[in-house]
Every structure is written in structure tokens, then in C-alpha cells.
Design a protein that fits this description.
single chain, alpha+beta, five-stranded antiparallel beta sheet, about 40% helix
């Protein structure tokens, strides 16, 4: 099934949201560091080997902690992406994992499934996104915009020379959560010292 770019963005920025979410996402994209890691016609996992696609992997800086999250978008096309292009995604940001991984999995729009714990893929979100709407979090949106701004297409992959997935590997979701908790623990003592 997968999701079209148009469907995903319409669900994320629909008319009911009056442009507020779009402005916040654009501001995030314009201020956050993004590192391009891979552009490839294959994935390092055994998923979707018979499909024609290209994949873009970016590391995007967290807006709350001094770390980067992985975003991989698989574009199911052998030409330039268009609004109707189907995509599948991976993102290890907490917001994506907790609120959207289950939904993307239901739409067959999730890649790197073994990188998520089973609970995230089998139990629907209850607090945020209880209606199970497939939306883009800020990191997915930033990667989509970055891919478009750099004119990355199926035919431009060779010019980037970034097909080796062993360099800057994609990190599993639970490992990112551990790293994030360690960073937050390191910040807590320094905040207490500053209050004295």
C-alpha cells in the first residue's frame, strides 16, 4: 500500500490546522542542521528487494537534545519524485516512534521494522493520534523537503556517491532512546548547579 507524499502532507497540514503546523514545520526545517548520509537504490535490510526505488538517509538534529535522529525515506519510483509518489519511512525520533510507527506499519509505509520494538508496531497510540492518521512528524517533513531541495532523484544517485550503508549506519529506535536518556541525565546535574 505505502503512502503518497501528497496524502501524507495533506493529513499533516490539512485546512483544519489553518497553516499553524506548516509554519512550525517550515521554521524547524529552516533552522535545524541536516546531514545527508546515504542515497541508494537498495536498503541494508532485506526489505522490498524486488521493488524499484531509491532511498535517502539523513541525520537530523534534535530540537531538544544534542543528538541526531535517523530518517530514511524510500521513494517508490524510478524517476523524479512527484506528489503522487509512494513512500515508506523510518524515523527514530521519539515522536515518530510513539505516535506514528504503528500507523505507518498499518499502511505498509514503514521500513526497518526490526529496528522498532514489537509494542510500537502492535499497540496503537492512545494519547496523541488516537484516530491513527498517517502524518509526517517534523523529521520526516524535513527529510522530504531536503530531498526536494537537493534535487535527489532515482537518476541522480550516482553523483552523490553515498551508497555505503556501513558508514553512518541507521540506529535502532530503542538505542536512540537510551542515548537520549543518558544525555538528559548528564544535563540534570548541571542545571542544579546553575540554580545555586
Amino acid at each position: 500500500m505505502a503512502l503518497s507524499i501528497q496524502h501524507l502532507l495533506k493529513a499533516t497540514f490539512g485546512p483544519a490546522k489553518m497553516g499553524i503546523v506548516k509554519r512550525a514545520y517550515d521554521e524547524f526545517y529552516n533552522t535545524i542542521p541536516i546531514k545527508l548520509c546515504h542515497v541508494s537504490r537498495s536498503l541494508p535490510t532485506n526489505e522490498y528487494k524486488k521493488s524499484t526505488f531509491f532511498a535517502v538517509h539523513c541525520k537530523i538534529k534534535s530540537e531538544k537534545v544534542d543528538m541526531y535522529y535517523d530518517v530514511v525515506i524510500q521513494y517508490l519510483t524510478d524517476t523524479n519524485p512527484s506528489p503522487n509518489t509512494l513512500i515508506r519511512c523510518y524515523c527514530n525520533s521519539p515522536s515518530f516512534g510513539f505516535f506514528f510507527a504503528y500507523v505507518y506499519n498499518r499502511w505498509d509505509a514503514l521500513i526497518f521494522k526490526p529496528y522498532y520494538n514489537v509494542q510500537l508496531l502492535t499497540q496503537p497510540p492512545k494519547v496523541r493520534n488516537p484516530k491513527k492518521i498517517p502524518e509526517a512528524d517534523k523529521y520526516i517533513y524535513a527529510c522530504l523537503r531536503y530531498t526536494s531541495s537537493k534535487r535527489i532523484t532515482y537518476n541522480s544517485i550516482d553523483k552523490f556517491n553515498m551508497t555505503d550503508w556501513t558508514k553512518n549506519p541507521v540506529i535502532p529506535f530503542d538505542e536512540i532512546l537510551k542515548q537520549r536518556k543518558q544525555l538528559q541525565k548528564q544535563l540534570r546535574p548541571s542545571k542544579r548547579k546553575n540554580k545555586r
